[in-house]
Amino acid sequence: MTLKKIIMILTLLVISPSILFAQSADFNEYEIYSTARTNPNPYTYGGLEPEKSLFKLTPRNSINSSGLGGLFVAETAEKLTAKQMVISSKYKYHKLSSTKGQAFFTTEEGDVSSFETSLTWIGKWAEWSVTVPIQEWSLSAPRTFGKRADENNGLGNINLGFKYTDLKDHSYYRFAFGISCSCDTGNSNDMTPAGSNDETTTKIFGCVTTKETDKATANLELGALINKEDEDWFLYNFGITYELTDKVSFISELAGEVAGGDDKDNLDMVLGFRLSPVKDFTFEMAYYRNLRTYRQYGWDNQFQIGASKKW
Asked: Whole-prediction pTM value?
């Protein structure tokens, strides 16, 4: 059975029960902010506690690629509802086109498919997560890499995440910080073109989320990637969200990494939306456009589709 067939089956298993049995969400009952407890049941849509949250409940609140609460790439400081489990799945696809900023020859090509499943526990003061990627790749670039055409599939590097969220709200912003670790699992050497390799990379980050208007928020994340491709990288991410309707959120991000000088940096623009047609279920689509790349296996465009379910 191919990776794409496995992805289709798993996606149907996650989505079907939610569509059949969940009821439509109604966001009109919640308050934007209150210093007193106004809702006796904290297990509300969007994973937010109305009595403690500075931010309005919207579909933007879901799980990012590291398995923590955030946008598509970045972590955010918004506090999710305590004592709930979230399972999320994402499918990503891109065509390989370069290495370390050098474009492939016209006859060379490759592509990567990844199916990532995250299990996230939301505690009273922190979030914990584990993300398991299953990847498939093919590459035919003998002039660039000096290797014959090849392909493979299997387990990528498992990611463990932690975010401390028990910091108080300020007038229009709040902070959070955390750490995530990409562990060397499986036969990583065989999955290098898909982004996994035989090293353990640690991400340390801090983020601040601000309320701009009743419908818009901004998010800034800064941090470091330790031991990525045998170097330490500085990372930054700036994101903006806007609520198109009560059930649809638009998200945009600029996600970058810098390793010293000599133009060793990656920068991606991410555009997408999250949709919550029913309670406790979120669907998402995103498009990544690479603006600058120093990846060993670089790409120009990446597409992402995913879903999450809360319990």
From this structure: 0.82
